[in-house]
Amino acid sequence: MRYLHADKCQRKRVCHYSINIKMPCYILVFIIVSFSISYEVFAQNKTLPDGWRLPNKEESVVKWRPEGMAPYLVVKEDFNGDGVTDEARILVNIDKANFYGLFVFLSIGNKIETMLLDTSSDKHFLKYMGIFPAKQGVYKTACAKGYGKPCGKGEPEEVTLLFPSIDYFMSEGAKSYFYWDKQIGSFKRIWISD
Q: Which position has the higher pLDDT, 21 or 112?
């Protein structure tokens, strides 16, 4: 990630950045304000899907989760590489008392697309489930690590994450990554541990 340093404005009102680009300071301020506003609009326009709600304290507070706002229940990253922050959340179904699901609110152009990636019909497991950012890189899959049966036909031994992804895990249990596949324009799931 590149960080811009705007605190080095000189008399000519030109800012010097760590990426060696010069521009008038008012343009930098405009860019920063525009990005902040677009992110706020994204956050405000995103609504929860019909029939789903945020987990309550009783459903989400357990000893393994650190204190703070929604620990391991929200991930904010640019999942599809378009330069806009997307959001993943674990939500609880209002109508079906024991259902929870993993949703992604993905920016596509000017709109937010809501995608359901996984559901479970046993809310008891919600206390043990979490999400965390998975960094870009190359990872061995569960079958390559020897978990369960050996990798079969069509099962990769490693996966390359081109964009930040979603580490979907059970505390002291299985783990999978949901990652954006640019070729198919959707998320794929790969198991990392059993």
A: 112
pTM listed for this prediction: 0.73
In this predicted structure, what is the pLDDT of residue 46? 63
Residues with Cβ within 8 Å of residue 107, at least 6 apart in sequence:
42, 80, 82, 84, 85, 86, 113
CA distance 16 to 26: 13
Q: Around Cβ 89, how many Cβ atoms within 10 Å?
A: 21
Q: CA 79, 82, 83: angle at the middle one, nearest 5?
A: 90
**Does residue 140 contact residue 150 with C-beta atoms inside 8 Å?**
no
Nearest to 116 by CA among 134, 97, 93: 93
Give 64-107 pLDDT, tens digit per residue: 666 654 578 899 999 999 999 999 999 999 987 779 999 999 99
Instruction: Let me know the angle formed at the C-alpha of 129 by 79 and 193, rounded to the nearest 5 degrees.
Output: 75
CA-CA distance, 83 to 54, in Å (whole number)? 26
Instruction: Domain ranges for the chain, please list them.
Output: 14-45, 52-193
CA angle at 155 for the pair 154 and 158, rounded to the nearest 5°? 130
Write out pLDDT tens, residues 118-148: 999 988 888 889 999 999 999 999 999 998 8
The token pair that represents 103 in the structure block:
């949703």
